[in-house]
Amino acid sequence: MLKRPLAAIAATVLVLGLAGCGDDESSTASDQPSNPDGAPCTYVEQEATDDAPEPPADKAAYDGEVQATVSLSAGDLGVTLDADAAPCTVNSFTSLAAQGYFDGIDCHRLSQAPEVQVLQCGDPTGTGGGGPGYSFDDELTGSETYEAGTLAMANAGPDTNGSQFFFVYGTWELPPNYTVFGQVDEADLEVLTGIAAKGVQGGLVDGPPAEAVTIESVTVD
């Protein structure tokens, strides 16, 4: 997919599969709060490896705004997660974070296509096809916008969310088919634009960042 012509890249830019497997076995989903009154969520288990993370609880742990920090090798991103708009997405993201799933994963994809400019992360296989061993439905209204700083889920089609997500750092001209679940603090956008300024490996418009970008941790503040 990374070597397709630009038009094909723009048409399929985020249809990349789900996401992979964490390697921190010392943490569990119980590290995040229990909320018996949380929104109901369904996570469909799929074939998983022995070191796959635990699926999230079937009640969303959070509501309202949730402050978190995504620590990258390039710098920290303060993010505000929207658990009202996307409770089950935030529930999955924070569950995986609590289990250390994202720690040490390289962000495998930087798109500099004029139509869509994103940094994509969350796949420990680095192939665009890794997943956490479960999937869950989109949380969409059809009126989503993707301005710079948007945090949203990558997918392989409708209702195939897993663990891959992306940050918008520039333009976006694709349909609103990707669940938005957070926003990067404006002051931290320079971290994303700095990554983008270094380009893509091999001088391509779409592929791994020229300088590796590793997730060091994801924490709920």
Structure description:
By secondary structure, the chain is of the alpha+beta class. It is globular. Helices cover 13% and strands 25% of the residues. The protein is built from three helices and eleven strands. The longest helix has 12 residues, at 87-98.
Short synopsis of the structure:
The protein has 221 residues and is α+β, with helices and mostly antiparallel strands. It has helices spanning 6-12, 87-98, 189-197; strands at 44-45, 65-72, 75-82, 109-113, 116-121, 134-135, 150-153, 165-172, 180-184, 206-207, 215-220. The protein is globular, with a radius of gyration of 16 Å.
Q: Helices and strands: which structural class? A: alpha+beta
Strand elements, count? 11
Q: Numbering strands along the chain, what is their spatial order in the largest sheet?
A: 10-4-5-8-7-9-3-2-11
Shape: globular
What's the total helix number? 3
The parts where pLDDT drops under 50 for at least 5 residues are 1-13, 15-30
Biggest β-sheet, characterized? 9 strands, antiparallel
Strand content: 25-35%
Give the termini separation.
Answer: 36 Å
Which H/E pattern describes the elements? HEEEHEEEEEEHEE
| Fraction of helical residues | 10-25%
Quaternary structure type: single chain
